[in-house]
Amino acid sequence: MKLEYEPFSERVRTDPYPYYRELREHAPVYWAPEAGTWVVSRYEDVRFVLKHHELFSSDAMGGMLAGQPVVEPRPASLDRILILMDPPDHVGVRNLVSRGFTPNRIAAVEARLREIVAETMTPLRDAESFDLVSALAVPVPVTIIAELLGVEIERSEDFKQWSDDIVAGVTGSRRSVGVPDQDFGGAMGQFEAYFGKLMEKRRSDPREDLISALTQAQDGEVGLNQSEMLVFLLTLLIAGNETTTNLIGSMVEALYEHPEQLERVVRDRSLIPSLIEETLRYAPPVQFLCRRTRCELELAGTKLPENSAVLPLLASANRDDRQFERGDEFDLTRDASGHLSFGFGTHICMGAALARLEASVITEALIEELPRFRPSSEPLEYVDSFMMRGPRKLVLERCSASSARATRRPLAEAR
Ligand code: HEM
Q1: Which atom number of ligand 1 is nearest to the Cα of residue 284?
Q2: Which residues pair with 298 in a beta bridge?
C-alpha cells in the first residue's frame, strides 16, 4: 500500500488500521499534507508526546474537535477549558472538577447503574431484534451522567434530549438522527437555562452531586465562573457519552467477529474485565488526540518546527507489536494494560473508572444474551466522525433454533 494517510479522509475512515500499520513500519512521524499535521503512530512516541506537555500543548484540541487541527492561539474566552489547558493552570482546574469523580461518588452511582441496566435490558430479552446502540449503548451512559450531575428526575428525559441534540450538533456524529440546527441552538439555550438555575439551587442547598461539588468550590481559589462551569458540563456530555457508547458497540462487534472469544467469556464471566481492556486496546473509542509543538524539536529522528500540529494516534499505538505482541489480534487472554485509550499523563481521562464500571455492568447483563442473537445482514456503519470510532447502529436478530450456530460466523461474513 502506498502511504497516503490523511486523518480526515473518508477513504481512511472506512478502515484506518492497515494505514496505521504502514505508518508504524515506514513513517513513524509522518507529515499529512492535506490536514497539515504531523502524525505519530508508534507506542513509545505517542506516549512521549502525551507525557511531555512542556513540549506539546493541549491547546490544539479545540480546533480538532471541530474537525481540523488548528494551532493558532485560542481566544481568551477559551482560557479555562480543562481539556485545552496546560500545566500549571490545568492542575488547579483539574483538582477542582475531579471532586466530582472521587471513588466514593463513582461507587454511589453503581447501585443506580445496575437498576438502569436491568430496566433497559428487560424488553430486549424477549425482543426478536433490537439495535444495540440506540437501545442500550446510548441511553445508559447519558442516564448515568444525569445522575452524577444531579439532574432532577422529572427533567431527566429533557436532559437526554438536549444531550443528544448538543452532541449531534458539536461532533456531527449522529447526523443520521437528522438533528437540524435549530434543535442544537434550542437545546443549548434550554441546557444553559436549566443548569444556570440548578447551580443557584445547589449553591444555597448543596447535595451529594457533581453540580454541588463544583458550586461549593466556586468561592475557592480556582473556582469556575458560571459560563466556565457550563462549558465543563458540555465537555462531560461529549467526553463521557459518545465514548462509552462506542466502547459497548465495538465490544459487541468484536465478539461476533471472534466467536471463540465470545464462547470463552460466556463460559467464564471472570474474563469480563479483560474483555473490556482488550476492546479498549483493540478498538479505541477515541482514535487520536491533537497537540501543538511549543518549540522546535526532534521526535524519532524527525525535526518538527515550533507551532506544528501533531496527532498522536492512540489507536495505532495500541496495536504496535513492539508493545503488544500480535497487536492486530483481538485476544482477551492477553494483558492489555498499558493501552493508551484513556490518554496518558496530565489529561488522562477523568471518567475512566466510571466508563469501566458502566461497561462491566452492561456486559454482565448482556453477555448471556449474545449467543441467542446474531448481527443482522445490514452493512455496518460507523459513527460519522474521524476522531471517534464505533458502530452507529448494530442490529441484533434472534437466532431461530436451527440457525443458532450461525452466531459462530464472523460478523464480516454474516453481513
Ligand atoms: C470508554 C470511554 C472513554 C474514553 C475512551 C475516554 C477517553 C478520553 C481520553 C483519550 C482523554 C484524554 C484527552 C487528552 O489527553 O487530550 C479523556 C479525557 C477526559 N475524559 Fe474521558 N473517555 C471516556 C469516558 C469518559 C467519561 C465517562 C467521562 C465523564 C463522565 C470522561 C471525562 C473526561 C474528562 C473530563 C477528560 C478531560 C481531562 C483533562 O483534560 O484533564 N471520559 N478521555
Answers
A1: 5
A2: 303
Query: Residue 409: what pLDDT?
Result: 46
Q: How many CB atoms lie within 10 A of CB 80?
A: 19
What SS3 class is residue 63?
helix
Distance 1 CA to ligand 1 centre (A): 33
The CA-to-CA distance between both ends of the chain, in Å, stands at 26
364 Cα: distance to centroid of ligand 1 (angstroms):
23
Q: How far away, in angstroms, is 355 Cα from ligand 1 center?
A: 9
pLDDT at 44 over 70: yes
Q: What is the pLDDT of residues 173-214, one digit of tens each?
A: 444 444 556 677 888 889 899 999 999 999 899 888 888 888
The predicted model scores a pTM of 0.92
How confident is the model at residue 69, as a pLDDT?
59
CATH number listed for the domain at residues 10-414: 1.10.630.10
* Residue nearest ligand 1's atom 3 by CA: 243
194 Cβ contact list (under 8 Å, min separation 6): 155, 158, 159, 162
Sheet holding 129-131, edge to edge: 129-131, 395-398, 373-375
Query: In whole angstroms, what is the distance from residue 143 CA to residue 104 CA?
Result: 19
Name, in order, each residue with C-beta under 8 angstroms of 6's C-beta and a sequence gap of 6 or more: 12, 32, 34, 35
| pLDDT tens digits along 127-137 | 999 999 999 99
Ligand 1 center to residue 310 CA distance, Å? 19
Q: Which residues line ligand 1 (CB under 6 A)?
A: 58, 61, 82-83, 94, 145, 235-236, 239-240, 243-244, 247, 285-286, 289, 341-343, 347, 349-351, 354-355
